[in-house]
Amino acid sequence: QVQLVESGGGLVQAGGSLRLSCAASGRTFGNYAMGWFRQAPGKEREFVAAISWSGVSTYYADSVKGRFTISRGNAKNTVSLQMNSLKPEDTAVYYCAARLRTITTMKNAQMRDEYDYWGRGTQVTVSS
After folding, report:
1. Which residue, 120, 113, 128, is CA-closest to 9?
2. Of the candidates 127, 116, 120, the residue with the CA atom closest to the CA atom of residue 39
3. Where are the beta strands (DSSP E) in 1-128?
4. Which own/partner pairs from 104-110 qualify as long-range (CB within 8 Å, at least 24 positions apart)?
């Protein structure tokens, strides 16, 4: 069992930066691949980024590539999302997710149903 708690959301002006963190409980955190998703009002939850259990492989949605960076610290049971050059369209609730199944492809990384555990989300608002 893994419990996930996100933090670091807030209000920021366009062009600014935020760093989201996800704290995981559970002794086997290192066995899980991790992902970040987001959901804007009236829209479906969409993939943002993912990282393999080893931290070697990372995956990004085209909309955030080059601006966001996902990382993990297995010793501290955390996964982070550094968000730079934020845009108003990045406004959403951001969710951390964990999956035991290995990420095999970019398409596979994006599949919500492949994730076993979800946090409750943290709000990110980017003003223009």
Report:
1. 120
2. 120
3. 3-7, 10-13, 18-25, 33-39, 46-51, 58-60, 68-73, 78-83, 92-99, 117-118, 122-127
4. 106/59, 109/33, 109/35, 109/47, 109/50, 109/59, 110/47, 110/50, 110/59, 110/61
Among the listed residues 1, 19, 16, the one whose alpha carbon sits nearest the alpha carbon of residue 94:
19
The string of pLDDT tens digits covering residues 87-112 is 999 999 999 999 988 999 999 999 99
H/E stretch holding 107: helix 106-109
Q: What distance in Å separates the CA atoms of residue 12 and residue 31, rounded to the nearest whole number?
A: 34
The Cβ of residue 54 has, within 10 Å, a number of other Cβ atoms equal to: 11
CB neighbourhood size of 7 (10 A): 14
Name residue, tokens 């002006």: 13
SS3 55: coil
Distance of CA 53 to the CA centre of its chain: 14
Tens-place pLDDT, residues 33-67: 999 999 999 999 999 999 999 899 999 999 999 99
- Report helix, strand or coil for 50: strand
